[in-house]
Amino acid sequence: MNLSVRVKDILNLFPDAEVSGSSQVEKISGIANLRDAKVGDLSFLGNSKYKNQVQHCRASVILLPQDYSAPPSQNQLFIKINKPSRGLAQLCELLEAKLCPPEKPGVHPTAFVEESAVLEPGVSIGAFTYLGKGAIIGSNGKIGTHCHIGRGSTVGDGSVLHPGVKLLSRCQIGKNVVLNAGVVIGSEGYGFDQTDEGHQKIPHLGIVVVEDGVEIGANTCIDRARFEKTKIGQGSKLDNLVQVGHNVQIGQNCLIVAQVGISGSVIMEDNVIVGGQAGFAGHLKVGKGAKIAGQAGITKDVEPGAFLKGNPALPFHLAQRIAVLQRKLPDLFNRFAQEKFRE
Amino acid sequence: MNLSVRVKDILNLFPDAEVSGSSQVEKISGIANLRDAKVGDLSFLGNSKYKNQVQHCRASVILLPQDYSAPPSQNQLFIKINKPSRGLAQLCELLEAKLCPPEKPGVHPTAFVEESAVLEPGVSIGAFTYLGKGAIIGSNGKIGTHCHIGRGSTVGDGSVLHPGVKLLSRCQIGKNVVLNAGVVIGSEGYGFDQTDEGHQKIPHLGIVVVEDGVEIGANTCIDRARFEKTKIGQGSKLDNLVQVGHNVQIGQNCLIVAQVGISGSVIMEDNVIVGGQAGFAGHLKVGKGAKIAGQAGITKDVEPGAFLKGNPALPFHLAQRIAVLQRKLPDLFNRFAQEKFRE
Amino acid sequence: MNLSVRVKDILNLFPDAEVSGSSQVEKISGIANLRDAKVGDLSFLGNSKYKNQVQHCRASVILLPQDYSAPPSQNQLFIKINKPSRGLAQLCELLEAKLCPPEKPGVHPTAFVEESAVLEPGVSIGAFTYLGKGAIIGSNGKIGTHCHIGRGSTVGDGSVLHPGVKLLSRCQIGKNVVLNAGVVIGSEGYGFDQTDEGHQKIPHLGIVVVEDGVEIGANTCIDRARFEKTKIGQGSKLDNLVQVGHNVQIGQNCLIVAQVGISGSVIMEDNVIVGGQAGFAGHLKVGKGAKIAGQAGITKDVEPGAFLKGNPALPFHLAQRIAVLQRKLPDLFNRFAQEKFRE
Fold first, then answer.
1. Tens digit of pLDDT for each residue in C182-207?
2. Is B85 a domain residue?
3. Pairs across A and C, CB distance < 8 A
4. Is B146 an active-site residue?
């Protein structure tokens, strides 16, 4: 990374910080973790388990928690604040605005906005974006290039749609939502009746509701409900290439890592964490705070707080134990064969 | 869902229905399943296993099969028809047209259509869509916004391409096909020769053929063949984020759930059903009517009618039995250790 | 395939070839493998294990290695060259230019190019494509329709971006790179701090670097790094729907098949081969030349040259052996039960 940020500007971000030492440089030129940082960089102690790395760190500026007691090296500035991770995030937001200044409010001349669409103040609409009839973009919403905002869909205040998002008709996006590039919201649900003349499509008339503060990764797809709504609860974060089937209800503050597949009508309660590539059969209930390991295959309801792994999924420690025993199967089979001979 | 459909209009859909009871309401305001329906809703008995729920159902109108014999509750209208599921689909189509009226025929002023492209009567072309040289859209085809129809590609009568579909050059889409948002048809196959100078690309000159009545889910990708054609057979339904490699031949009326991966040159016969996230190694043959459980890993040919699960995939019941026994491995190892001591 | 290529033009491609026999036809009408080829087709012996198929092959023209000794059939032309696979690729390139002539250099009238963007000679820019401020497209670059080239991003000489590629800001694409339709480069990394007020987003300020000769499949997503760069090394080939997390470092000439998921900060050395749907937990190191079977779940560092399978992943032969023994578990449990009775 090639930055140029004045140390003075960084200090201004943290008026309540306790500062010690002095940086040789007037501007930092990069950000790096404690181990990789070099002279000119800013580093940070975000997790106390890396505490021992601070004394060997070569960064010119280090963000530290208030209880860190050792002194800075020569030509090193310590900035002690309440939450260094939060402080780093603040700094990054400053940098982000520099590196990639947000689009100015306004509609790009190549965009097409239907007459009945409504743009609140501060909205920016990117090149080649289409806004359908009755669509509403809340204040300061940022809609990237090549987006489709379907008829009657709404996007809440401060939400960001990256390039190529397809938000189909009548769906509702909350405030401060981030939809990464290529996300599809409101595709047809996968439901067919088996008839004598083949699979007969079941129309999906419902919608998708994405609540406030949700973030959704690139090329992830969320199908509309059959009659009611598919819902992604407040503050939940979905990674890239995730599949969310029709009528799924995802609770608040769930974390769903890349390539997870959630079949139709699954109900996931709050604070569930799902590792990458895990899959859920349809119509399941996943209890509050459950953790599902990557690649797990969930075919039954999951108790609140459970931690499951494998397919079929088992309690994590049992799954680990069985994995160890499986590696001993060749030995067990051998020994079993020998035991028999003795009799 | 917030509907407003006159009961009279619903009755008009089913001129041959046997009607009993009377609805308190003049208009239905929603559709719901038997258990969730409330006064004002329409419900339906699509599957006879839910028969017992009818008597407790609070819906104002219920679609029932002709052999349902119990009488309606007070203020409840029974509409008995030959196939309630089919009837519901008919009703939904009526509602869909109301909720989301189809685009009127015509080319959006922002679209770009090459001179040699052909649009049959009744076609609609969405905003920012590009039609390449010699492309043909059959009558009543509906092409959404931001679509790319490559040079020489054809789309059959009545097919629907949702926003952002990329149909690359020379591919053939049949009649009444649905391609959901973000689908890619005709991407380059993944084939490389290992040479001393690294992986040498093998050009893929073939095409993709999607037959009549196929539906393909959002962001699914289908690669073009090396020389001939990758084929999706008539009436097959693919869900979201599915990968279909070069030269794959999928038969008729297959059901392929989300995130399935099908490697190059797989031949899948008719009526195969594949659960989500299952994967197929290349050059396999999957026999007619086979069923593959979600997340299964198929590395060998599959017999017609087989039902497989797991990786390596085993017959379903054997896989289930082994899964049960695996959970008993800790016990088996313990007991085995004890048995030895006795000798 | 329906071709029409003069045999004379094919011979011109291979001036050093040793030619024997004579083709009945003046033009070839298709290309097919040895087994499927019919009169009028061209075929080829790319892999010596199919040597025995040559004598029964009905193709009118066959590309063969120089050491193939048997004579052609009647009305059959043998073209013996140093590397038939390479020769076939050359022929295919000729055909590709005929079947699908590349766009002429120039900017499509519907494209939008910011003033400060730079187009080197020979560049073509497709319909509805957006080039951001300071973007640079190297000479002979081909940018398809509906692409987004973000502010400050660069694309090297001779690279091809298929329709709908989203190359977000400040990312660097090398020379002769192919990005298939719908690829997303530079999406936000998936990283959140757990705080009392929910998951707090960690800004991702880094970039993505894609080195020379890389090819990336349709709808694949590559996240930008937190501070530095996510890197795809020279000559590596990624298939469709692959997920590459923030800060991942992929070496040179890796092969990564469809739907693989690579979590943040994984380091993959050169020449690694990964089968479809395999997954990698974060912060792992995968040694040079390692092979990972399809659907494997990698949760620990992988030694150079290792060949792993399964989840948890084991050495391939051990995994195979355990899979065989698992199928014998029902028998083992039965026999164990019986043995006990004897005592």
1. 999 999 999 888 777 788 888 889 99
2. yes
3. 177
4. no
Q: What is the pLDDT of residue C340?
A: 58
Residue with tokens 């087989």: B306
* Residue A120 and residue A264 in one domain: yes
């290349």: which residue's tokens? B282
Confidence of residue C342 (pLDDT cuts 50, 70, 90): low
Taking CB atoms and an 8 Å limit, are C339 and B339 in contact across chains?
A: yes
CA distances from A85 to A47, A80, C193 (A): 8, 11, 8
Please, what is the end-to-end C-alpha distance for chain C in angstroms?
A: 71
Interface probe, candidates C143, C165, C169, C227, chain A, greatest A C-beta count within 10 A: C227
Q: Which residue of B has its CA nearest to C85?
A: B193
Do residues C218 and C236 lie in contact, with contact meaning Cβ atoms separated by under 8 Å?
no
Q: What percent of chain A has pLDDT over 90?
A: 80
- Rounded to whole angstroms, the Cα distance separating A16 from A18 reads 7
CB contact under 8 A, B255 and A342: no
Q: Any idea what the Cα angle at residue C28 is, between residues C25 and C30, rounded to 5°?
A: 140
For the domain that residue C93 is a member of, what is the CATH number?
A: 3.40.1390.10
What CATH number is attached to the domain comprising B187? 2.160.10.10
CB atoms within 10 A of CB A331: 9
Total of domains in chain B? 2
* Residue C23, number of CB atoms within 10 A of its CB: 23
Are B223 and C241 in contact (CB < 8 Å)? no
The amino acid that residue B253 corresponds to is N
Confidence of residue B340 (pLDDT cuts 50, 70, 90): low
Which strand ranges, in their side-by-side order, compose the sheet holding C172-173? C118-119, C136-137, C154-155, C172-173, C207-210, C229-232, C249-250, C267-268, C285-286
Mean pLDDT of C34-63: 92
Alpha carbons C160 and B168: distance in angstroms, whole number:
14
Residue C98 phi, psi (nearest 5): -75, -45
The 10 Å Cβ neighbour count of residue A18 is: 12
Based on the number of CB atoms within 10 Å of its own CB, is B192 exposed (0-12), middle (13-18) or buried (19 or more)? middle
What is the DSSP-derived secondary structure letter of residue A44?
E
ipTM of the complex: 0.94
Strand bridging mode A285-286 / A229-232: unpaired
Q: Which of residues 241 through 260 in chain A touch C, CB cutoff 8 A?
A: 241, 252-253, 255, 257-259
Are B45 and B54 contacting, i.e. CB atoms less than 8 angstroms apart? yes
Whether residues B83 and B120 fall in one domain: no
What spatial distance separates the first Cα and last Cα of chain B, rounded to whole Å?
Answer: 71
Residue A95 lies in domain: 5-99
In a domain, C70, yes or no: yes
pTM given for the model? 0.95
Q: In C, residues 178-197, which contact B (CB 8 Å cutoff)?
A: 178, 180-182
Question: Which of A198, A138, A148, A182 is CA-nearest to residue A168?
Answer: A148
Residues C293-311 as b or e (16 or more Cβ within 10 Å = b): bbbbbbbeebeeebbbbbb
B208 strand-pairing partners = B230
Alpha helix stretches (DSSP H) within chain B: 7-13, 84-99, 316-327, 329-342
Give domain status of residue A81, yes or no: yes
Residues A43 and A114 in one domain: no
Q: What is the rounded CA–CA span in Å between residue B119 and residue B135?
A: 8
Nearest to C107 by CA among C153, C143, C138, C134: C143
Instruction: Report residue B316: phi and psi, to 5°.
Output: -50, -50
Nearest Cα to Cα of residue C32 among C98, C91, C101, C102 = C91
Per-residue pLDDT at C343: 47
Helix (H) or strand (E) holding C274: strand C273-274
Which residue of A205, A244, A256 is the best one to mutate when testing the B interface, meaning the one whose CB has the most B CBs within 10 A?
A205
- Residue A297 forms part of a structural domain: yes
Of the two residues A201 and A320, the one the predictor is more confident about is A320
φ/ψ of B330, rounded to 5, equals -55, -40
